[in-house]
Amino acid sequence: MAVYVIGDVQGCYSRLARLLDKIRFDQTCDKLWFCGDLVNRGPESLHTLRFVRSLGDSALTVLGNHDLHLLAIFHTRQVVSKSNSLSEILLSPDCEELLAWLQSQPLIHYDAELSFLLVHAGIHVDWDIPQAIKYAGEVEQVLRGGNSDFFFRQMYGDQPDRWSDDLTGIGRLRCITNILTRLRFYSADGRLEYKAKGSPRQHANAGLVPWFESNLRLNSPVRIAFGHWSTLKVGVYGQHFAIDGGCVWGRKFVALRIDTAEPQWFEVGCD
Predict the structure, then answer these.
(1) What is the pLDDT of residues 90-134, one digit of tens each?
(2) DSSP state of 57
(3) Predicted local confidence at residue 79, as pLDDT
(4) How many domains does the structure of the chain reveal?
């Protein structure tokens, strides 16, 4: 059995299929871990959702900010144009079934045996693994409960921009969600910075610090795979593995095999 982490798909199903051919994915024995953002921007979001769901126990995905955006559009009954990359999903006959499945997915996944944690964007500097699981679970409970409509109406926004365990209500849920699905940088004074989307070098003069360069409380053997950051070079940053190759922008699609003694990289071009 092989276990692969797959970078942001963002509706690029045909290129995903090429990548799975390259790694010779066998649904009967292999596992795929998707790092979130299955949908949006690319032309095949509906096909992507249907395919990943069809894999059953052979795949798991964590939620990304674009996945949550799709769910928010659905729950707040926003009208989108037919040219919107998400419209095909929202108009499909199996929309409710697909989105119910998507909404049931976790925000993080941790495998103690493999010593790997999967998240879409990042983990806060003050969190250890039990805390990260606990905080993610607070949002997951709301997503799977009867009050998710209220959450999606209040989900957007950059505040609070500092984490504290004393946060309550929607501010607490929004902060947890933003950290797990949108985080790239901390500001020089420790605030959560969401507007900067370039590479660390592009923002070096602004005093911004990549989240993975902070002194994390996670145990040293634990490795973290994350996507979300297409302008960050794919590769290894200490115990962190950046796997968003920017396929939707015409760069590359990345898979990382994590069940081997040393993780192995695979990629296909997306031009």
Answers:
(1) 999 999 999 999 999 999 999 999 999 999 999 999 999 999 999
(2) G
(3) 75
(4) 1
Structural domain of residue 160, as residue ranges?
3-269
Weakly modelled stretches of the chain, pLDDT under 70 = 82, 215-220
User: In this structure, how many other beta carbons lie within 10 angstroms of the beta carbon of residue 235?
Assistant: 11
Query: Which amino acid is residue 75, in one-letter code?
Result: H
Q: Which two tokens stand for residue 46?
A: 């509906």
pTM of the entire predicted model: 0.96
CA–CA gap between residue 39 and residue 81 (Å, rounded): 16
Structure tokens at 215: 């002194």
**For the chain, the helix, strand and coil percentages under 3-state DSSP, each to the nearest 5:** 35, 15, 50
CATH of the domain at 260: 3.60.21.10
Which residue is it, tokens 């982490």?
5
What is the DSSP track for 163-175?
A: --TT--HHHHHHH
Q: Which amino acid is at 78?
A: Q
Q: What is the pLDDT of residue 215?
A: 63
